[in-house]
Design goal:
Length: 185
């Protein structure tokens, strides 16, 4: 009998109890961690739309170096007053559409401004980061960055050897899809 009446008192065996110990230090962009996130390639004058979706459980603050962007939609709804920012704070489950004009040629970092979200399994730089690359711009600096980060590749526990990407083992991440609009030409 249980303590509250004629019902059996069933307790889980110790074997059934599993500690909740998630590893929240792996952050992904489009399912991959830097440096395996492909660059966003644009041409000078392009108007670019990004759809940003926070698929994780933490806040993310996305920033594109050398650019600001116009926030036009939140959670699928058009804003009555779009606004310009250089960093956008995105809560869990939120979706934003942002636009920017590619008019500052170079190689620019796109990343989460919260430094703790730029790691993967404790390695930094990694996580939510990629680059905005203008077509026909020298990629020498980007290649040097990749050389530096690839040193970590052999040490990251969750690397999928066939694809060279981290598996999302309990972490959070962002989804970013891009579209080009001919208005900028």
């Amino acid at each position: 009998m249980g303590p509250d009446g004629p019902y059996p008192w069933l307790l889980p065996s110790p074997k059934m109890l599993m500690p909740f110990d998630p590893d929240f230090n792996e952050f992904l962009l489009n399912g991959k961690s830097a440096p395996w996130v492909p660059p966003l390639v644009v041409e000078d004058g392009d108007v670019v739309r990004l759809r940003l979706i926070n698929l994780g459980m933490e806040m993310h603050s996305l920033h594109i170096h050398g650019h600001s962007f116009i926030v036009t939609h939140r959670d699928g709804f058009k804003l009555t007053s779009p606004y310009e920012v250089d960093t956008l704070l995105i809560g869990p489950g939120e979706r934003y559409d942002v636009w920017f004009k590619a008019e500052n040629p170079g190689l620019w970092v796109i990343h989460d401004h919260a430094g703790r979200n730029m790691v993967a399994d404790g390695f930094d730089p990694a996580g939510i980061m990629t680059v905005l690359q203008y077509k026909d711009y020298s990629t020498e600096a980007y290649e040097k960055f990749l050389e530096r980060v690839r040193v970590y590749e052999r040490d990251i526990r969750h690397v999928d050897e066939s694809h060279g990407m981290l598996t999302p083992s309990g972490g959070g991440g962002m989804d970013m899809s891009a579209g080009m609009d001919g208005m900028g030409h």
